[in-house]
Each structure stands twice: as C-alpha cells, then as structure tokens.
Amino acid sequence: MPWQPQVPAVPKEGHILAQRLDLLDPAEVARLGGIEIVAEGVVEGFLSGVHRSPFRGFSVEFTEHRAYQPGDELRYLDWRILARSDRLFVKQFEEETNLRAMILVDASRSMAWRGSPERLTKRAYADRLAAALALILLRQRDATGLVTFDEQVRQVIPPRVKAGQWTRVVRGLIATPDGSGTAAHAALQRLTALLARRGMVILLSDLLFDRDLALAALRYLRHRGHQVIVFHLMDPAEVELGGPPEVRFRDPESSVTVVVRPRELARAYADTVRREIAAWRKACRRHGIAYHHVQTDLPFGMALRLLT
Amino acid sequence: MTFINPLALLGLVAAAIPALLHLLQRRVPPELEFPAVRYLSAAERESARRLKLRHLLLLILRTALIIVIVLAAARPLVRMGGAGGGAHEPTAVVVILDNSPSSGVVVDGRLVLDRLRVIARTTISRTTSADRVWLMLCDGVLRRGTREALLASVDSATTGWQRLDLVQAVDRAARLVDAQPLPGREVHVLSDLQRSALAEGRAVVPAGVRVLSLAALDRAVANRGIAEVRVTEGAAVIELKGAGAGSASGDAAQPVPVTIRVGAGRRDRGEISARGLATPGSAVTIEIPVQNLSPGWWVGEALLEPDELRADDRRPFAWRVAPAARVTATAGAGGFVAAALAVLREGSRVRDGSDVTFTGGEALAGELSIVQPPADPALVGQANRALGARGVSWQWGGGATSTPGPISAPTLNGIAGVQVIRRYRLEQTSPGSGGSGGGSSDQSADDVLATVNDEPWLVRAGSTVLLGSRMDTAWTVLPATPAFVPFIDALANRIVRGEADVTTAEGAPRVEFRRRGTDTTGATVFGPDPRESDLTPAPKSLVETALGGEDRVEVLGDAEFASERFSGTRRTDGSGFLLVLALLLAASELGVATRTR
C-alpha cells in the first residue's frame, strides 16, 4: 500500500497546501517520519504539481539550444548556428537513462546546527532534500549516487539506476554521522577523482569553508564536463543575528570564540552575510555553476523548484 | 555662576555611575554555539571602530545627561542683560523704608507708607539666600535677618515718630553694602522724599554702589502742623508750620483755629482751655489764665483740626509754675551779676532774700550758693578751703591760665558757643562726696553743666554751683551777650535748685518727668520733628545730588523701580534650559543606543 502522509486539518483555503508536503514547513514535514517517508511525500507532492522533472541532460531527443559554456563537449555544438551567426550554441536533448548524478552532502559539524528547536538542522534538511532529489532522479531512471563528506569522504555510493539504489542512498545518508571540521576543498578534490564520467554534481552544504579553495575544486569538476549545482544551506538564525544582549559565540568546528552584542552587530552581520552570498553567487555564475541559497525554513518543494 | 540649590551639586558624584557600571558590570557572557563565526568576525572587524566610537559616545552622553540633570536640580543662575524678571547674582542690599511721621500722610485715600511698604516687601521677597539684606526704618537701625524676618518687620512697620535723615541713612547704607564681598551692591530708598529730609549734606556713595530711589508722588500735599509750643509768663507761644503746596497760598495759608488744653485729667486742679487763630509759618500767642494755676509742673497740649497728616496736629507741652527765687549778691559777685539781678528783680523773676547767694569766692553764707572764683588769685586757696569746709567736692585749680575756648552746654542752649577768655580749671577733690546743705549722694557727671575745651566750667555740687570764670567781660564775653540775663535767671531759679529745663525729644507725643528722689527736676516733651510737617517733595535734581550724585542715583517711578532693582546683577534660572538640554541628550542617547548601524 502506497504511503499516505498524515496531513493535519487546515482551513479550506489552505487545502491545496495541505495536500502537498513539498510546500509545508520542513520541520513539520520532518515530524511525519524518516527520511524516506519525507522524501517520498515531498516528491509526490512536487511531481503532482505543475512541475516536471527539473533535470535535463544529453539524449537522442533534442529539446532546446543553450549558450556554450566552457567544459561542454564540442560534439554537441550546433555547427549550423555557428556558421550562420558565428555564435556558440550547444544542443540539449531529453536524456532518458544515462544521466549520472552524484549528490554531495556536507556532513561537517557546522551542518549539525539549528538556530531554533522548531527548525531542522542544516544536515537534516540536506539529508531530506538529497533523498528527494535522488528519488526524482531515480524515478526518471537516471543513475544517482551519493557522497557524504566532512574533512574526509565518509560515504560513497556510486551512481546506479537499478532497483534499491534509492534505499542505498538513504541508508548512506543515515549511516553518515555528524563530522567535525570541514576541509571541503580536500574532500572535493578527492571527489573529482571518483567522478570520472561526466554528469551532474549536486552539492548540499553550508559553504562554511574557504571559498577560493572550494571553488577551485568545483571549477575543476565543471572543467571535467560536469553540470554543477550548489545548494547553499543556511539556518535563518545565521542570516539574521539574534540572541542575548551579550554573548560569546563559539565556532563548533574551530572552537574560535568571539564576544559580541548581537543587537549592535546585527546590521553589520547581515551585510556581511549578504556580501558572502553575493560573492558565492557571482563566483559560481562566472564558472557556469548553478548557485541556490536555501534557508532551512524553506519548504522542500520550493527548494526543488529552484532547479526548474 | 551661582546656584539656588547648591547642595544638589553633590549629585555630580553620580556622573561616575556610567563609567563605574561599565567597569563593574563586565560579567562573563553566556557561551553559545554558532557556526557562522567567520561571518561574525568579519562583521566585527569592519564595525570595531564604529562600535568603539559608539560606546564612547554613549558613555559621554550618559555622563553628560547626569551632569546636566544635577546642574538643573541645583538651579544655576545665569547672568542676563536687560530688564525683566529672573533671579540675580548675590547682592548686598539695604532697603531704607522711611516710615517717619510724614509717611503717615494720606494721599488719594491711601497711606503713603502703604505704597512704600508694598515696594519694600516686593524687593525683599525677590532676594535669595545668597543675598545680604538689611532693613532700615526711621530709627536708623540697620536690621539684618532672614528674608522672612525682614518681611515681618516690613509688615509690622507703622508710621514712626522719628525723623529719618535720608542723606545720613544713604551714606551709612552705601558704606555698609560697599564693604560686602558680593557682586551686587544696592541701596533702595523708599521714602516720600521730603525736601527737608535732604536739606543737609551729601551722601558719599562709593563706586559700584547703586542707589535706587523711589520717586516722590507727583503732587504736593498741603499740611499744617504745630511745630513748637513754648510757655512763657501766662501765655503759650505756638509756632505753626505750613507745608507742601499750601505753605504760601491756598488752604494751608489760611488762619486755622488752635486749641490749648492745660491740666487735662488733673481733677484736683481742673482743666483749662483756650482758643486762638494761627497762620501757618508764624507764631501765635494764646493767653493762659495763670491765676488758676497752682505752683508745680503743668502739662498741656496744642491741637489743630485734623488734616491729611495727623501726626503733627497735636503737640504736648510742659512747664513749671514756681514762685520767684529770693536772691542776694555779695560785693565780690561783680557788677554784671548785680545788674542782671536788678533786671530780673524788676521783671519779678527774683525777689530780695537770702535763699540764693551770688558770691565772688568769699565765705559761703546762704542756703544755696552760686560761686565765682575770686578776682585775686591769691585768694583762690582761701576760697577752696571755704568750699571744702562746706563739703563741696569741687575746687578751682591753680592759676587762671587755662586755655580759652567756647562754652559747651547741652542743657543750656543760650550760652553754648560763648567765648571764655580766662578760667580756672574746676577739679574734683573727692569724687562722689556730696556737699552740705542737702547735697545728694548721687552727684556724678550730671553735675557738670557746661565745659570749655572738655574741662568742667559750670558745676553743681549739692547746694553750690561753681563757675570756672568770673561773670566779667575780662574773663568771658557772656555778660555782654543777650543770653546773660536768662543765664542768671536759670542759675537762680532752676540750676542751683537742681532743676533742669524742659527739653524736647522725638517720639510719640507725651511728657516724661525727670525725678531726683521725690523731687521732679525736669521734663522732656516728646513729639515729631517740626521738619516732618513740611511735605514739600524734593525735586529730582536735589535727590540725585544729595544721595550720592547723578551717576550713582536713579530716581524711578514704581514701574521703573520694579524693573531696575537688581538689574545690574540680574540672572535667570538656567534650569529650564538645562532640562531641555537633558531632554535632547536623552533623545540622543536613545537614538545612539537603539541605532544598530
């Protein structure tokens, strides 16, 4: 019997929302069950909506052109357009089975944090989002794998399309404990060796590591022909600084502490965060990497919709 | 700068509270886990300078806020220009409230003193605890006290009976305030400004002392008053004084009825009254039926119809009805004395007899003796022995070469100032011992009736009167003056008996008798100074000149007086401004404290 989510009664005007777990608060959805249940519920809701699968790749059925980006295979260049307009376009095809997607989940210590007990930790949010993504990919018969990492690569589930792959992905997520520090660039460099065949790489992380080093690794993946998508996960409390009048904040990874008066520093902090997000977004765009900033109170469906 | 509540300045200690709180409340903050410390550190690095400035600004604002509030509570006085209200710097001020008899005149249905009292009250009410205030009334006493005590004195001040010499009063007041180490020095003259009160001298007002005088009323008030009453043989001579606008013309120049009443209240002798018409500025003689008067002291009063100034409408008088003394003179008494006695005998002032003896240093024979030094210096020793034998405690000193000089005699006005050429110094042999013949034991300095160069010249010792000079023009010019015969009359009828003349003094109208034992030896008649009856106001120029000069004295109307007092040191209470400033500081502090960027 297929899983039926237990949706609490809501007013009539909220009927549609109540039927779609992908649009509910992530924390509320998480209370309905484990990762599998949540992911299935979210995906059911998402796909039953107006959305199609957000993923496109290379297949025999041509869908559209897009501007050439460094790293695209030259064989997909549309030479006719190049001859007519002297502009580089590649042809995109409706891929059926041969998309190889690898989901990278940051399992560092900082991901195991939440600003409020009413919300999911970044790691929990990433797990559920990763499971949902994997389910969508596997349903359209795309080979999907999983890599979890902190300072080291913790779990590697190679991309497969066979039955039981999603369960393995979910178990891989569950089996990965919260790590300690994050030296993501080292893990990402190791991942480049694992991802020999080009495909899609989806990174779920709070990006609290050295941006330049991490970008170097991502840029390398992009150079190897991977389509790279970055989900920058942040807790709302990391965006808007709050807390007691005076507090000593300790970095869970480096144990660095700093004493601040949140009320005094709130605006400056918000500016810094905005600048950091903008810097990531700009750097990713420059290198053909899709960047999405996601707060952990964003419904999963809305996060998935960022990919369409 | 001065403060109305200087004790509040102790609150300035509270200005250290913000800094102390900053230092003492540095507690260990709670520690929380926060992954995005790297963003936090970056934000703090960027904002560190701004935050330090903000903290410093908050500290300054909070400290300044406390200081400003404390200063406002202390109520500082800030100097301000121009006239108007407000407080003033510490000022030494003498308020001269002239409540002399003339202040009792009624003008337009209102007592002049009431007008002066209101202004004095306002002036004193405007003083603060930092001021030094004195109040001077017509008695000339400088009263120092608290504001409340002085206000009570002003409220209780009624029309007095003493004349106030404004020139002397301002002179004393100016010297007093000039000696005070205060920024402001003012003398406020609240008077009806009679011309007669400013007639003599000029006050010396030091630089830096302001004399503010209330201007006199615009119109003069006509007044008639009894200036003096003298009783001669069988008649009272009454001098009437006209004052104000009517002194030369109008109602005040018209003859007015004067009533004399004698023996009022003495049922044993009965009351005698007489009437007459007197013109202001002149004297009138009203006969008294002396045949009904028995020997002794008599008291009477002269009365006028009531007018605007009641204080001078009644004046008492006293005189003694006594039989003429029986007098004899020895050959040594000299020709001038004999001639004078002849005149007095002709006028029935003396009779022949031996009750009183005038001698020239010879042996004393009569009951009462008036003794001149002997003409021959060789006889002085013998005369002194005779005095000693009679028990007289005075004698003539050696030689008649004492320095000449004028006679000074407070109780014998007629001979005062008369030049003495030769005299013996009168010396007391045994102080306190009385003479024979009824000499009393309370002889003292009162026995010295006249002096020359501060040395006794006329002395009464018991029943004997000693003269320092002979009544001869070779010794003194007195025998050649008109005062000689009255002087001999006084010696024979009054002085040798130990009786004094009737004197006058300022005060509520009444008669007081002087007594020695059971004997009445004299009388003092009290009444207002006759000059008080002249209500003619002094012109402004005279006021300015008499009270210290044009550059020191301001003669002001009521409104100008109110605006000019303390104007030299006027200050305003700065607490209002400070409270506004405190509000601005509080708003600024709130803005800075709540502003997070």
Q: Can you put this structure into words, describing what you see?
A:
The complex is a heterodimer of chains A (308) and B (597). Chain A is α/β, with parallel strands linked by helices and 308 residues long. Helices cover 38% and strands 20% of the residues of chain A. A 6-stranded mixed β-sheet of chain A has the order 5-4-3-6-7-10, with helices on both faces. In chain A, strands 1-2 form a two-stranded antiparallel ribbon. A two-stranded antiparallel ribbon of chain A has the order 8-9. In chain A, helix 5 (122-139) links the parallel strand 3 and strand 4. In chain A, helix 3 packs across helix 5, helix 5 runs antiparallel to helix 6 and helix 7 (184-194) runs parallel beside helix 8. Chain A starts with 14 loop residues before the first helix and ends with a helix. By secondary structure, chain B is of the alpha/beta class. Chain B is 25% helix and 28% strand. In chain B, strands 20-19-21-22-29-28-27-24-25 form a 9-stranded mixed β-sheet, covered by helices on one side. Chain B has a 6-stranded mixed β-sheet with strand order 9-8-5-10-11-33, sandwiched between helices. In chain B, strands 1-3-34-4 form a 4-stranded antiparallel β-sheet. Chain B starts with a strand and ends with a helix. Residues 244-249 and 433-445 of chain B have low confidence and may be disordered.
